[in-house]
Hints:
322 residues; Ubiquitin-like (UB roll); 3 domains; iron-sulfur
Amino acid sequence: MKAADSIQVTVTRKQTEAQDICTFELVGAQGEPLPAFSAGSHIDVHLPGGPVRQYSLCNDPAENHRYLVGVLKDPASRGGSHAMHETISEGVMLTISAPKNHFPLAANAPRSLLLAGGIGVTPILCMAERLAVIGADFTMHYCTRSPARTAFRHRIAASSFAQRVTFHFDDGNPDQKLDINALLRAASADTHLYVCGPKGFMEAVLDTARARGWPEERLHYEFFSAEPVKLETDGTFEVKLASSGKVVCVAKDQTVVEALAAAGVEVQTSCEQGVCGTCLTRVISGEPDHRDMYLTPNEQAANNVFLPCCSRSKSGQLVLDL
């Protein structure tokens, strides 16, 4: 991250919202206003020890005095959520990025269907509140393991749109569980779908929507994390830098980012899992082996960009716009 993009903030409030979920209120270190954001935005948070993690903003975009993020203490965490829960307390200063939005609301969508799974409620709730403010037509479905693990229940209950929200609990009566196929079948043809949550939940929703013929332009989603994909068939390949003609070999057990770094070529990264898009790189020639969760299927099929933090190559060489 460039120094100019860094913002120093102070944690002014840490609050338990549900079992294993805390919210953190961040304000400018000197009390200064924070950059504006829109529903669906996230920030990069630089944690002690070096990890950088992305957290969605879940407060009112009209507020410029604070950011609010919700964090799940994930037992499968790579260190980020554990650090937030165990080492970050009120009064701690953090470095964050300016807000970024890879998950915006579609302008003038006639109807919106919002689906949240677990901690994926953070951007979805912000969207619901924005849609309610502008008087848009929407419904929201919120799936969690149990009521005790359901963040923001009181905030939703007190909202003007509470009647538009349906809760679904894994440990509840089978009749109240989300029927994805039935929900998408009943949606009108002009509905835009927004989904965020665990990878399995999101894939189930998106796979069902695509099987039912929903066009990609009406599917909006944001993955929080992804497991690195490694195959026994992975081999070596080359990447060529268009600017200099330099050729770098990528070993079977290396990522493109790692191979380039070893050759003295730095590519800006953040999540290193193929979900945030920070390292998106233009491909001039060659066929990428896409393993990210950021690009849409149509964008992947175009083969003119890829994410070098996780994706590889199907061809012997990729020529990159670097």
